[in-house]
């Protein structure tokens, strides 16, 4: 559990993992139009849009290691019976290419993948390309801009899980992201966020603000999929504080 000053967590995290000394993009190729990965007994094929990568304001057009780590973490946790996703409602925020949401659906969840309007076409394509045949769960796509009030289908009922990868990337977006996470979660909701370790100031800013409403714990890499661990990625679990949940009712 993360306690006290978030700056202490940043010093510990960067000191332990030393992300700048490890190879970036160990599991992805962002210059490719397609990324393939084995998960849940099938080969998942994720379409990317590398030409959009450098466009100002455009996010989620390609995969990052944190998305692979999150998706394989879910698969490994279910396989080891550390996590139950069968029949659970899952909302993926900032879904981008949608890998983690697709894996959650293959693991039996009722998934709603969300992102900004310009990302939905790619999301829908990746769902259609990969969730075919005998799928234990299901997936739909919904527009969600952080800071805006979520559509009723996202919060009625509240999700069992909210997941996201590489969603903590700028201090300017922290307030809107946290507002959305508060809206999407109750005391029975588990939030799982994986992210690239690029800027300790941004993560510290998020952590400091999030601690007002959430209890936060870092997931040790020993609990990740053994083949998908990276010093450049961190994963956190957030659960809403009881007093915060009462205050938002």
TrEMBL record:
* Family matches, as InterPro entries: Methyltransf_16 (IPR019410), SAM-dependent_MTases_sf (IPR029063)
Q: Which Pfam families match?
A: Methyltransf_16
For this entry, the protein name equals Protein N-lysine methyltransferase METTL21A
Q: Which domain of life is it from?
A: Eukaryota
């Amino acid at each position: 559990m993360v306690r006290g000053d978030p700056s202490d967590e940043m010093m510990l995290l960067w000191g332990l993992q030393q992300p700048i000394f490890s190879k970036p993009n160990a599991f992805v190729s962002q210059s490719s139009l397609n990324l393939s990965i084995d998960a849940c007994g099938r080969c998942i094929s994720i379409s990317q849009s590398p030409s959009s990568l450098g466009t100002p304001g455009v996010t989620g057009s390609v995969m990052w290691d944190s998305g692979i780590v999150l998706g394989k973490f879910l698969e490994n946790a279910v396989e080891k019976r550390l996590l139950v996703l069968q029949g659970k409602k899952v909302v993926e925020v900032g879904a981008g290419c949608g890998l983690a949401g697709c894996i959650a659906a293959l693991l039996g969840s009722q998934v709603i993948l969300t992102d900004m309007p310009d990302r939905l076409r790619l999301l829908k394509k990746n769902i259609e390309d990969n969730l075919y045949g005998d799928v234990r769960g299901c997936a739909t796509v919904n527009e969600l801009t952080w800071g805006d009030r979520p559509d009723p289908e996202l919060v009625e009922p509240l999700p069992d899980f909210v997941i996201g990868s590489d969603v903590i990337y700028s201090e300017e977006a922290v307030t809107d992201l946290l507002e959305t996470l508060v809206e999407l979660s109750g005391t029975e909701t588990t939030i799982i966020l994986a992210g690239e370790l690029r800027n300790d100031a941004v993560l510290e800013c998020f952590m400091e603000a999030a601690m007002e409403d959430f209890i936060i714990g870092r997931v040790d890499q020993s609990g990740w999929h053994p083949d998908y661990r990276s010093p450049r990625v961190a994963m956190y679990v957030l659960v809403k504080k009881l007093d915060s949940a009462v205050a938002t009712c």
